[in-house]
Write a structure and sequence with these properties.
- Helix 1 (64-75) links the parallel strand 3 (44-48) and strand 4.
- Helices cover 36% and strands 25% of the residues.
- The strands form 2 sheets. Strands 1, 2, 3, 4, 5, 6 and 11 form a 7-stranded mixed sheet that branches. It has a 4-stranded antiparallel sheet with strand order 8-9-7-10.
- With 305 residues, it is an alpha+beta fold.
- It folds into 2 domains: 5-164 and 297-304, Ribosomal Protein S5, domain 2 (2-Layer Sandwich), CATH 3.30.230.10; 168-295, 2-Layer Sandwich (Alpha-Beta Plaits).
- Helix 2 packs across helix 3 (122-133).
Amino acid sequence: MSPDRITVRVPATTANLGPGFDAFGLALDMWNEAVFCLEGCETYVDFTDAAADSGQLPTGGDNLIARSFAFLYEKRGLTPPAGLHITCTNRVPTGSGMGSSATAVLSGLAAANAFLANPYDKDGLLELATELEGHPDNAAAGIFGGLTVSLTENGRILTRRFDVPPFSVALAVPSFYLPTRAARAALPECVPIKDAVFNISRAVMVVEALRDGDLDLLGRVLDDRLHQPYRFKLIPGCFAAQDAARSAGARAVALSGAGPSLLAFSAEADCPAVAAAMQRAYESAGLACRSFVLATSPVGVQVSI
């Protein structure tokens, strides 16, 4: 018998991690939660706005969570149930480079999958999420937790998950709207071979550094020539925030996803100072900014009935 109430929790994620452009994802211990009930006759979405920026999100069937829910039903050749009521507690800032859209997509997919007695395993859910998201990096980390590396092979997604030792990261989230489309439009269509080699070699080292918890190695290899040099220029205060993080003790700094958030790795005791330093730098550039110190998460999406 199908349940009438399902709760889904999905973690924030950070993608790219420097040279792992469109491939790397890391789950973080900040969670969006959505409760799905079948009641009434019209789909609607309520928000408990823990992130303080959900006010502009749609509250009807065009909400991304609701659309993702319906998408899975349609993939099964079924009509989505009427009267879907979704109550969301959003903690992940929207448009921040912390995987907020992936949390919405995965929430809708995981709930629909549970209502239908789980016809899709995690790999199947990732295929659907990638079809909606356009890329698997955030979704993979949101599903599997830990560190993930994903690629597309013959139209299918191949993902591997790696355990990483528990550690914390500092994030600064400036109030600057950087649409993913604009962040991608800033990238060149072709890059020199030497830049491709630069990223390939460092990407392998980033995985090893994170698996070993080796911040010294991470500080030497968390660099990129394919996307960050072009995106940093779009975000006021980003260069200054990067410098401030390093001055405060950060071993390695990178954009979180496409930005505008900045992600910094440092010794546990230095994380609060690093987060505060990045926040001050963005504020000095005229942007309101929030900062967080978050642990990594070894687990991904959680579903309870």
